Amino acid sequence: MPTAEEACLCLEAKERQGATFEAHDHAHDEHAHEDHDHGHSHEGVDPHGWLDPVNAQAWLEAIAESLAELDPANAGVYRRNAAEGQAELDALVNDLNDSLADARDARFIVFHDAYQYFESRFDVPAAGAIALGDASDPSPARIREVQERVAELNIQCVFREPQFNPALVESVFEGTGVDTSIVIDPLGVDLPLGANLYPQLLRQLADGVARCASHT
């Protein structure tokens, strides 16, 4: 039986050409790699696997099987609960796909590159990330690079996160016409605990992308 980690449809943690605004000349490439070395904490596998509900379905099955082995008398209950949860996630995926149907062309960047699972599952790729990881704020050189590329790519929105300083985003993009009001959170720290936390977390991400797309 696979572990929950093995059941994850894991993505390699890597700098994506579009997502991290990689420069194309050697001087900028060298500088970009310096930023990456000092600020990026996602080595190996991208750790944000919960942002793909298909991973959550796999984990439900793995958890149910582990519990069934530990408590055989209630194995049927664990498996039924997991199956019900998987069905609810199927419905959630369908709902989110519907809500994002008109948002596939949204041009947004995120504060840090945590959303590849969600982007890949729902075909809403970010155009870039300000910070390359969770560990530190972006350097001044990184900020200048992002400002230049935001103008080139006609970015509509920059998504803020509650864990990071909102003044940084607002000051960087002041006067550009880019919407910095949308807040998303891969952790859902402000959401109430309970059975609805996970679907609310994913709906929050989808709502942010849909709001951005409405600017077109």
UniProtKB/TrEMBL annotation:
GO terms for molecular function: metal ion binding. Residues 21-44 are annotated as: Disordered. One of its GO terms (biological process) is zinc ion transport. Gene3D superfamilies: Nitrogenase molybdenum iron protein domain (3.40.50.1980). It comes from the Bacteria. The keyword Nucleus does not apply. InterPro entries: Bact_metal-bind_prot9, ZnuA-like. It holds the Pfam family ZnuA. Keywords: Ion transport, Signal, Transport, Zinc, Zinc transport. PANTHER family: HIGH-AFFINITY ZINC UPTAKE SYSTEM PROTEIN ZNUA, HIGH-AFFINITY ZINC UPTAKE SYSTEM PROTEIN ZNUA-RELATED. Belongs to the bacterial solute-binding protein 9 family. This is High-affinity zinc uptake system protein ZnuA. It comes from Halomonas urumqiensis.
